[in-house]
């Protein structure tokens, strides 16, 4: 009964795409959270929505427009952070405000409201061939880059003052974190949803932090939890005809609450 879900190609694709996204989102979420930049997730998620609205309005591929918008937003965040060193957190607020404004304006010109709703709450089971392969390719790119930057990123997160002394370009590492996060969030817009993706970026990491005690263990556990949330959400949404993205986030929130209660006791 349970395995009948794999008789359908669209569900097999959903599980494959879900696995990749469940890996890359907490991978980028951990350094973002440790650098006290969790607001970036929400900002880039809204930027992806603005990109989708612009793409639908002008006839571009919404997913490619989402990626482009997130990259531009990420570059904007880094630029403002470097200009306003004493108020770096303002960078996310400025880009968030601009993204919401642009999304609202361009949504006004879209006749089919259903086309944008898929990006608000996710539509992982209706992903097209091109989107399927694009998600896999981009996910592999993020995973490889994260692996290559692992040691330098670890040092930049925990000892940013010593990093330059050891010859590490901190600005470049910060840029790569923002860039890779932008790419990861943008390709998650269609599958998990722009309004939900920031939660999956942070909640598995916070849940893992309640249990793990090292950076590496927290990263691995957050990925394991993320994959579990996604797969459980796909099963539940299939059998009860619910929105997959919403179910996935609710499961992750419930798990986090239970973990915090158990830890407190």
UniProtKB/TrEMBL annotation:
GO terms of biological process kind: response to zinc ion; transmembrane transport
InterPro entries: ABC_BtuC-like, ABC_TroCD
Transmembrane segments: 53-80, 92-112, 132-150, 162-185, 191-212, 219-240, 246-262
Membrane topology term: Multi-pass membrane protein
Compartment annotation: Cell membrane; Membrane
Main location: membrane
An example Gene Ontology CC term for this record: ATP-binding cassette (ABC) transporter complex
Keyword set, alphabetical order: Membrane, Transmembrane, Transmembrane helix, Transport
Protein family membership: Belongs to the ABC-3 integral membrane protein family.
Protein name: ABC 3 transport family protein
Source organism per UniProt: Lactobacillus iners DSM 13335
